[in-house]
Amino acid sequence: MEESNSLLVIIRHAPYSSNLLREGLDAALVAAAFGHPVDLLFLGQGVTALLKKQGSGAPGMKATRPTMDMLEMYDIEQLWTSEETLEALSLTRSKLRDNVQLVQAQKMPAFMKNYSQILNF
Fold first, then answer.
1. What percent of the chain has pLDDT over 90?
2. Nearest 10 degrees: Cα torsion 29, 101, 81, 24
3. What's 7-53+62-120's CATH class?
4. Cα–Cα distance between 48 and 17 in angstroms, integer?
5. Which of 54, 100, 113, 119 to pair with 38, CA 20 to 30 A apart?
6. What is the pTM of this model?
7. How far is Cα 103 from Cα 85, in angstroms, rounded to an integer?
């Protein structure tokens, strides 16, 4: 059953390919700061933000790892990706942060119905 103010933020961009990952994380943090339940779904290149080991970005770009590390402080504990995304990028579950959960692509429509609001970045 969906909560009336639940939010799913979908992140599809790699950490240093654009500002969209950072903007998605910022939107999630703001919503969580105002008491909204927030989950994050990483698809496509966005899943690279979930890697345990990350490099640094270009000069002048803020690192995303510190933001990812503080999500739990804002009660954002549900991080999701799809099994198909991992397969497409030749990644294994063991290379991701410990708190990442997997959802199958075929179950994605039902998964998304659990949220009253969805933002794409």
1. 74
2. 0
3. alpha beta
4. 11
5. 54
6. 0.89
7. 10
